Amino acid sequence: MMPGLVIEGIVEDVNFLDSSVRAPTGEQDSIPNGEIRVVRNFSRGAFSGLKIHITINAEDLPHTLITLNDLGESTASQLPELLEPWQAINTANHLGQNGELTLVAKALYGASARLKPRLLKIIQQRLHAEGIRLGN
């Protein structure tokens, strides 16, 4: 790596030896941690990130996605700490009996820790009411 070189992007992975940064143009840089001298975090803003992992039976995936999208809209309008409806993304790299989803949400800065248990309760109650079974 060249001295004084600036690499800008999204940090995708940090491990014991190096850090992976994805540039806005798509390139992935692997930077030895010993070479990193200064880090500026521009992502810290008026919100805190919040993630909820859900495992369901794969056969319930289509119904679950519809339910979670509808619930995300209504929940965001009811809870002022939730800045916008969450997004459901698939985090698994395989198919099988279970489907894995992650809900990614933005909460008011510093509010995610107290908001998460409330969201877990709301989500679990709604999935149960819809007959969606949680997987292992």
Describe the structure.
The structure is a single chain. By secondary structure, the chain is of the alpha+beta class. It has two domains: 1-43, SH3 type barrels (Roll), CATH 2.30.30; 47-129, Alpha-Beta Plaits (2-Layer Sandwich), CATH 3.30.70. Helices cover 26% and strands 30% of the residues. It is built from two helices and six strands, in the order ββββαββα. It has helices at residues 61-78, 112-129; strands at residues 10-14, 18-22, 28-32, 47-57, 87-90, 98-108. It is globular and about 60 Å long.
In short:
The chain has 136 residues and is α+β, with helices and mostly antiparallel strands. Helices cover 26% and strands 30% of the residues. The protein has helices at 61-78, 112-129; strands spanning 10-14, 18-22, 28-32, 47-57, 87-90, 98-108.
Defining key terms:
136 residues; SH3 type barrels; Alpha-Beta Plaits; three-stranded antiparallel beta sheet
Structural class: alpha+beta
End-to-end separation:
44 Å
β-sheet strand percentage: 25-35%
User: Can you tell me the overall shape?
Assistant: globular
Question: Can you tell me the number of structural domains?
Answer: 2
- Rg over CA atoms, rounded to whole Å, is 19 Å
Q: How helical, in percent, are the residues? A: 25-40%
Note the total helix count.
2
Strand order of the largest sheet: 1-2-3
CATH second-level architecture of the largest domain: 2-Layer Sandwich
Largest sheet: 3 strands, antiparallel
- Quaternary organization: single chain
Mean pLDDT: 88
The CATH class of the largest domain is identified as Alpha Beta
CATH topology term of the largest domain? Alpha-Beta Plaits
Q: SSE order, as H and E?
A: EEEEHEEH
Number of strands: 6
Q: Could you list the spans in which at least 5 consecutive residues all have pLDDT below 50?
A: none
